[in-house]
Design goal:
This protein is an alpha/beta fold. It has helices at 3-12, 30-37, 50-60, 71-81, 118-129, 152-162, 179-186, 206-214, 220-225, 228-239; strands at 20-24, 41-46, 86-89, 103-112, 133-144, 190-198, 201-203, 249-251, 254-261. It has a domain at 3-148 and 172-200 and 253-261: Rossmann fold, CATH 3.40.50.150.
Length: 263
Amino acid sequence: MLVPLYEAVFERLDVGGGTRMLGLGCGSGLALLMAASRGAAVTGVDSRSPERLALARRRLLPETLDAPGSRGTRARADAARADAPRIVEGTPRDAEDPLAPAFTLVTAFEPIGCLAGDSEGLGELLAQATPLAGRGAAVVLAGWGPPERCATTSVLRVATKLADPLRGAGSWRPALRDDLEEVAQRAGLRPDGSGRVACPFGYADAGSAARGLLSTGLFDAAIAATDQEQVDKELSEALHPYQRPDGTVWMPNVFRYLIARTP
């Protein structure tokens, strides 16, 4: 769903052969794959989902580098390893390699501004990641756009309505205008441009839409406070206005990105 966001950022920053990218919360590795296809050396870090990281490894790690071969083949493989994609399960500190050049780009494409407390979690990741980047390196933060321009907002309100208000962190909240700028400021980063990108959410049918939205974790607090059946029922009702006559679901959204620079 966020491919237009990745493309816009990579085009604006001219991501290519000279780029060394650290992807925070890399998930299944799609943004890393797109950057690698442009010639970037990529490292992805995530601690949330071993299953998604396994998919990232299948997408990015060439099997040929681990296969036994001749002495010449092994020499070429050793040379290639220096810039080979890396997928690290853990925190940014676990991605540190004293022998590797500093990162020139750090991305946090997991959109903030929809979960209470998500900006604080991003701040902790940036505190570990920015020391691994070079001076003046680009740090890209992403977030949801204005609620009135995101059709999915009305669907995500179901998560807030059903979640226990006392739980606080983990429940959905509407995005605020300065979410990204505040995170950058707290991390000691210098803003250097921003943009908005249309990222519509499209699904083959209502069932696919429900599964996709539930997989984001935004409804976990609601499920814990009520039950799966109640969440499924209200989510289905919220999706109904966006279902087309052919059964597909289409929700236009706008996402923001902020480019900041390390000191």
